[in-house]
Amino acid sequence: MDAINFGEHVSCGYKSDFKEYGVISFDLNGSRQVVPNYAVPKMNTSTMSGICAANNSLVLSNNSYYSWTTSSGGKYTWTVNNGRIGWAASESLLAENTNQKGTNYKWEMCKASNILSDLAQGKSVWGYLYSNEEVLSVCEKVGISPGFFSIDAGAGKYTYLLQESGKTINVDAKIKQLNDINWIEIGYKEGDTFSVYGKEYAIDSSGHINVSAEDEFTSTEIKYPSRSI
To answer: Residue 16 and residue 4: Cα distance in Å, rounded?
Structure first.
């Protein structure tokens, strides 16, 4: 089961009318493996922990199984694999195709999986794919409330700012942007002070400020010093 769920290039030859003839195939140590669908056992989801943040920090063990509960109360086995969070391949690939209409539970899980996986890989959650309301709903479902939050699911730790509207700001990317700019070159001077999320940083002799995502932030705003151009 681990080889299927945490392997590479997993696919399913599924035909709804002839399910017993379908197969799951996957790569294992450079070798292609094929398993008939009927030989893949269902997993006992009731024994698994739910996906839940603590103090706005969501930490999930890599190559591990978790339980996901849909809005209708159904429980399904999810996996965490190098920042990819979602329905276990051994189970999802045996199901019928996802229906994007209405409140179909598979489409509901697909949206949640994509949103959480993007966050867990340090990506931006683009508004044209999912609304801010959908992002906020998924975050709240796993115990993340508006404010600063972090997520670590096997692909490194990433920090975000979740606004009340559901908009997310990639704090790591914003900090990198602020640190990379030579502020003296664009009109500021050494010693000018920025307030980044409530903590002050002065421009050093090289023209840079040095913000760290590990700093303790007390505000959601960034304030720039005045400059003369």
So the answer is: 21
